[in-house]
Specification:
By secondary structure, the chain is an alpha+beta fold. It has four domains: 2-106, PAS domain (Beta-Lactamase, 2-Layer Sandwich), CATH 3.30.450; 125-226, Beta-Lactamase; 234-420, GAF domain (Beta-Lactamase); 433-651, 4-Layer Sandwich (Phosphatase 2c, domain 1), CATH 3.60.40. Helices cover 37% and strands 27% of the residues. The chain has 18 helices and 25 strands. It has a five-stranded antiparallel β-sheet with strand order 2-1-5-4-3, sandwiched between helices. Strands 7-6-10-9-8 form a five-stranded antiparallel β-sheet, sandwiched between helices. Strands 12-11-15-14-13 form a five-stranded antiparallel β-sheet, with helices on both faces. A hairpin with a 5-residue loop joins strand 17 (460-466) and strand 18. The mean pLDDT is 86.
Length: 652
């Protein structure tokens, strides 16, 4: 599109395209037509362009909006070039080229708006947004990024390798991310930023290539988001859950065993699986001195080294008191949120202890009393190790003190149990007969075995003694209960049945005496018992039961059977039991037992089957002392959780 303009600014000629563009009819050569079509605020600029041409004979150009044939305004570029009549003479006309630049102007305006929006977005974003060249050097960085890197306006880091912002393992991760992004990958990772001064922070980093028109990466876009608070919140939630889980699991462990060494080792293992890197229990022994009894470390390679911790409890002459002894002496907790070399030297019991803590990289430490009420029984030590990571806080201290309290209660219960078990065992052994009858053509053998440490003892008994008329009275029983109380009741029942038999050799009379004794000394007690009178001349056996299993008999022909002897439990017995009579013969073997023998596997049918199988072995039924090998054969490899008594009679 073009027009020819006179020196006075009058339009002399227009191209058809220009006329059509403006919607000007043929023959109209009035300059006012173009002037009226120009957007009003740009008309003075157009007059100025024409004025300069008239005054100076100078070329020029101007972009301005002009109304087109459809009534809308579009941007055009008007380029004015003077036309001289002869070289060196003043021009009399000017050629005006008219170019539609509306699309370009609108694209530029959109781009400017987009750039302005992007700048506002970058300024408003809390994320750290950067661009890198393909060598990983910083090209641009927004304000949030500058603040995160503590470089003011960011000019201090432009041109610097972005990976140098990171340290240690994070730097290697950053270098790898750049290489992968240059290769076209989108990379995301989480890392800690640890400036020489200032707070450490955790960042979620995303890096992607900016691809050029050729489809190849030209730059790298890096968006980093500070997730320090989010991580702290998540860690706090995770730790709170771990503490609750540890308390629940600790209660289960405390309830599962009365062996305090096993219990404390199990708690230490749980602690390093949830809230600490290392856990130690130092417990005061009978000699009044603390000793390391349980230890665990999250790293198996360090656990053996942790076992040496007990050697450091005694301090060198030139060093202070070990912190474990301080807690034992004062009852107060030791809480060190963050250790340092000075603290390690000051708090170690000696040079070896100092090297020990340094080698294991003690970072944060808590020592609390393991107490029962106001009595300190020992200490619990929790350690976080390594050069970095979370530190113990006040909530960890409160949790450790609660854990120490629970461990203390469990420890005292275990010690009480151990003492009671010792007394009950001694009473049990003292109450059982030291000698069994010695008769011609007969042998009596018995064995008693206490249950495992997880169970109770003290309620099972056996007895055999010769009456004045030569017959033999037999009793076997089991008091329902545990510990010393059961052992005492067992002793009284055995003595009552023995005294009754010496007066009236009748199984029901013996059981009546046991019933009255139980109601007198333990009105709510329950027990089982079997009473029998054996005649060695007639080889007959008369029995009565109070809820106790009858004996197993191996006859001389090899057949084995259980003698059924019905009866009601002692404590509930209100009428005499039905007497059972067995005719025996030379070569027979009779086995009386308590239920611990056949219920060790929690399956009585299996237990009876194992008993019968054992009675089928000549090395057992023909042994001089068959009771112990019989018990070994019937009980499972782990032994019985309940105590067990066996009385074997052989006729030969």
């Amino acid at each position: 599109m073009a027009a020819l303009v006179s020196a006075s600014g009058r339009v002399l000629l227009r191209t058809d395209r220009w006329s059509a563009y403006l919607g000007i009819g043929p023959g109209r050569l009035d300059e006012a037509v173009e002037l009226d079509a120009v957007q009003p605020e740009y008309r003075d600029a157009l007059r100025g362009l024409l004025g300069r041409y008239v005054a100076t004979d100078a070329a020029g150009e101007l972009e301005l909006p002009i109304r087109t044939v459809d009534g809308t305004y579009r941007w055009i570029l008007a380029q004015l070039a003077p036309l001289a009549a002869a070289p060196g003479s003043r021009s009399s006309h000017a050629f005006v080229a008219l170019i539609d630049v509306d699309q370009r102007r609108r694209a530029e305006a959109a781009l400017r708006e987009q750039l302005a929006f992007s700048e506002r977005l970058l300024a408003a974003s809390d994320d750290c947004i950067k661009t890198l060249d393909l060598q990983g050097r910083l090209l641009t960085i927004n304000e949030a990024g500058s603040e995160a890197l503590e470089v003011g306006g960011g000019t201090d880091v432009i041109g610097r390798r972005w990976s140098d912002v990171w340290a240690g393992q994070e730097r290697a991760v950053a270098v790898d991310a750049v290489e992968r992004a240059v290769g076209g990958d989108v990379v995301r990772f989480t890392a800690e930023l640890r400036p020489a001064a200032g707070r450490h922070s955790t960042w979620d980093v995303s890096m992607s290539p900016i691809v050029g028109v050729d489809g190849m990466p030209e730059r790298l876009l890096v968006i980093s988001r500070d997730i320090t608070e989010q991580c702290a919140t998540e860690n706090a939630r995770r730790i709170a859950i771990a503490r609750l889980e540890l308390l629940v699991m600790t209660d289960r462990v405390l309830a599962s065993s009365l062996d305090y060494t096993t219990t404390l080792n199990n708690i230490a293992r749980l602690a390093v699986e949830t809230i600490a890197d290392a856990c130690l229990f130092d417990i005061v022994g009978d000699d009044g001195k603390p000793a390391l009894v349980a230890v665990a470390h999250a790293e198996p390679d360090h656990e053996a080294l942790m076992g040496d911790a007990g050697r450091h409890l005694e301090s060198d002459p030139d060093r202070g008191e070990h912190y474990v002894r301080t807690t034992l002496r004062t009852g107060r907790s030791v809480f060190v949120p963050l250790t340092d070399p000075t603290w390690i030297v000051r708090s170690s019991s000696g040079t070896v202890h100092e090297r020990f803590m340094t080698a294991l990289e003690y970072r944060s430490l808590i020592v609390v009393a393991v107490r029962n009420g106001d009595v300190s029984l020992g200490t619990l030590t929790l350690v976080l190790a390594g050069p970095r990571g979370r530190l113990f806080d006040g909530s960890d201290l409160a949790f450790a003190e609660e854990l120490g309290r629970r461990a203390g209660v469990a420890l005292e219960n275990a010690r009480l149990y151990t003492r009671e078990r010792h007394v009950a065992t001694a009473l049990q052994e003292a109450s059982l007969p030291t000698e069994l009858p010695q008769l011609e053509h007969m042998s009596f053998d018995a064995s008693y075995r206490a249950g495992s440490s997880e169970a109770t003892i003290g309620g099972d008994w056996y007895d055999a003694f010769v009456l004045r008329d030569g017959r033999v009275a037999l009793t076997v029983g089991d008091v329902l209960g545990s510990g010393l109380k059961a052992a005492v009741i067992m002793t009284k029942l055995r003595q009552a049945m023995q005294s009754a038999a010496l007066i009236v050799a009748d199984p029901n009379v013996m059981l009546d005496a046991a019933e009255q004794t139980l109601r007198l000394h333990a009105p709510d007690g329950i027990a089982t018992a079997i009473a029998a009178i054996f005649d060695p001349t007639a080889l007959t056996l008369c029995l009565a039961s109070a809820g106790h299993p009858g004996p197993a008999v191996r006859y001389r022909d090899g057949t084995i059977e259980e003698v059924a002897v019905p009866g009601i439990l002692l404590g509930l017995r209100d009428h005499p039991a039905e007497l059972q009579h067995c005719q025996l013969a030379v070569g027979d073997t009779i086995v009386f037992y308590t239920d611990g023998l056949v219920e060790a596997t929690r399956d009585m049918d299996e237990g009876i089957a194992r008993l019968h199988a054992a009675l089928g072995q000549p090395e057992i039924y023909a042994a001089r002392h068959p009771a112990r090998p019989l018990m070994d054969a019937v009980l499972p490899p782990g032994g019985a959780t309940d105590d067990t008594a066996v009385l074997v009679i052989r006729i030969f």
